[in-house]
Amino acid sequence: MADWLRSQGYDLDTAGSVPEGIAAADRKHYDVVLCDIRLREDDGFKILAHCRANHPETAVIMITGYGTVESAVEAIKAGAFDFLTKPLIDEELEIAIDRALNQQKVIEENINLKAQLDMRFGMENIVGNDHRMLRIYDMVDSIADTKATVLITGESGTGKSLIARAIHRRSTRRNMPFVEIACGALPETLLESELFGHVAGSFTGATGEKLGKFMQAEGGTIFLDEIGTASASMQVKLLRILQDFEFEQVGGTKTFSVDTRVILATNDDLSQAVAEGRFRQDLFYRVNVINIELPPLRERISDIPMLAKHFLEQVCNDSGKKVHGISEQAMAALQRFEWPGNVRELQNVVERAVLLGKGDTIELDDLPSTFASSGSMPIAPVGNRTLKEALSGPERQIILDVLEMNNWNRHATAESLGINRTTLYKKMKRLGLEEPQQLMQNQ
User: Fold this and answer.
1) Are residues 138 and 220 in the same domain?
2) Strand 178-182 to strand 221-225: parallel, antiparallel, or no bridges (unpaired)?
3) Of the candidates 157, 135, 143, 114, which has an alpha carbon nearest to the alpha carbon of residue 307?
4) Could you state, in chain order, the average pLDDT of each consecutive group of 10 residues for the chain (443 residues)?
5) Is the bond leading into 87 cis (omega within 30 degrees of zero)?
6) DSSP, res 85
7) Nearest CA to 396 among 360, 341, 442, 342?
């Protein structure tokens, strides 16, 4: 058989016993193993079991001269790719090998594609090149495969849930459940039942047993948002589960253990809450093992063009509308706005502008009236000035902010602003932004 397969162009090795076969499989990667069930005094199923446990990417085809339906079923259940009976027909053997190789190729392509998707979308919809965001990306990669508790802090709308999902997505737990619960949205009694479950009859309306969120997240990740709103008694229960990963259902006496990664988030200042007696100090130390602090959008204005473009493309894909970009005046207004609702508010503004706008570009008039009346950016002529002259002040400040943020690296600044370098150079010259030293002299 080996000689014939070599004549067909296959590269193969042979082994005459179970120990030889296992040693060969451990020494070198094989796409396919052809294994007889009877190997001298030994059983070929041992090689099958070894390959399934240690080399699952290798397809194993079992061969026997004593084939029965029962032995075929046993082989397939044990993980064999195929089961052939002697005498073997050349064509039958070659078809079986081709099928195994084709399946291995599909599996390998899927693995590679999944790896590419993880690299591209592992950060979900998190967009930004701000230096603080880049540090956060590095931190997510560093901690993803640990079980350490993570506390994500930041104002509402900064993307805490997205960071939590990114940590889960880039970890070995990615194929297990990601369970999210907003602690501030539920009263204490209902929150306890949601987290830990309850037994039948534990309270009015508890007609059956309920599985809690921690059990639902077994093997995966549980994300507890708005943790700062937890009551004093709930904080005690959370401290125990974070220490021992054990709990009892509401009304129950049986202790459950879980293997769950815990990520928490809050827009509250927990250290201040501890000082004021609203949050337990021991729980704060337990949840603050790794802290990821998300900056508000107003402190990363260089990311606004990239984020706005990202949301624009999302809305266009979902709605089918053809909007190709955002005008300079509209973008300047977006970058001058304070964004109290952060990234979430920007997403809503862009979505509204796309859906309600009439042209193929988002103009200043397509933005909510607050962008014209908030005072964040002068948009009309003042005195004898033209609109272009009125806009030059805010435009100069925006470019200056981004230049300073990028240490006056013009290439990085142009990318952050979403314009080419030639356009940036012309604007800098027109607005008197040459070099930091010259700028200091002019001031």
Assistant:
1) yes
2) parallel
3) 157
4) 89 91 92 89 89 90 83 84 85 88 80 59 66 88 90 92 90 90 84 87 76 91 92 91 89 89 93 92 92 92 90 88 89 89 92 89 88 49 55 76 81 80 81 61 48
5) yes
6) E
7) 442
How far does CA 87 lie from the centroid of its chain? 52
CATH code for the domain of 360: 1.10.8.60
Cα–Cα distance, 336 to 339 (Å, whole number): 9
Residues 344 and 160: their CA atoms lie apart, in Å, by 11
CB atoms within 10 A of CB 424: 21
What's CA 178's distance to the chain center, in Å?
11
Q: Would 52 be classed as within a structural domain?
A: yes
Alpha carbon distance 98, 92 (integer Å): 10
DSSP string, 282-341: HHHHHHTSEEEEPPPGGG-GGGHHHHHHHHHHHHHHHH-----EE-HHHHHHHHHS--TT
Residue 126 belongs to a domain: no
DSSP state of 275: H
Closest CA to 168 of 160, 159, 177: 177
Task: Give the pTM.
Answer: 0.59
SS3 15: coil
